[in-house]
Amino acid sequence: METNKSPLNIREIVYNEAGTSYNIPPHTHSVLQWYCVVFGNVDISCNENFFTLQPDDSILISPNVIRAPKYHNKSVGYFYVLFENHHLNLENLTDKVVMIPNELHFDLNTLINEIYRPGENTYELVEALVTRILIGLERKIRNHNSTDNSSNLNIRSQNELLNQIEAYLQRNLQKNISRRDLSEVFHISSSHLARIFRNISGISISKRLFQMRIERAKQLLLESSLPISEISLQVGYTNFSHFTNIFRKEMGITPSDFRRTQGNIRRKLNIDH
Q1: Which of 40, 143, 220, 242 could form a disulfide with 74 if both were Cys (CB 3.0 to 4.6 A apart)?
Q2: Residue 224 falls within a domain, yes or no?
């Protein structure tokens, strides 16, 4: 198909973090809205349907559908994209919850980082990433029942390994975890394990561990009354000053200010193209 048009036109893209006060009144949009949860849980109603979105869950909501997302048990980080669809085939994707697969995590992380820290040609990069992820999700659904299971056995086993590694990291955030430790737990050489993890997730184990520690720290800051020094220890940082510095560098705000503002952080990308 030949066309000079971009596959989609982004109207608005926002990344937001919120605590227990997150409760958006029922509303509609005249264009498609792609809504994705990064951490925490969100209850969302779409007309007469109700969904609970967990981390990495997303939903593509049709125009003019009444939607109302709200807090569910945990503080939440999410982003949404409002866009006009010019010629992408997304018919299998609309109005259903779909989990972002591991092979799209690298693009998802790049998209979130670009919203946080825009650079040169930001709009073009964001448009390409959103397009790539939506196409990947559409293909995931379309191929779900027609995929040759035997041909994807190795990929599935690697995905299972990645999930097991992430579960282990989550249970042991307070510990000093090395690749050697993981190698002994999963009985795989450290280099091979690191290569599988990066190939499937798109990031290194150390980077993922850092992300999980920051996410857990944010939840504890919002959902507990623990002293920040204790939270620092629970997420694996014995040096309180170091924890404060890396938290501020990552979030643009100190842990104490994050708690004081109830985690209400909003990044709206300036769409200028």
Answers
A1: 40
A2: yes
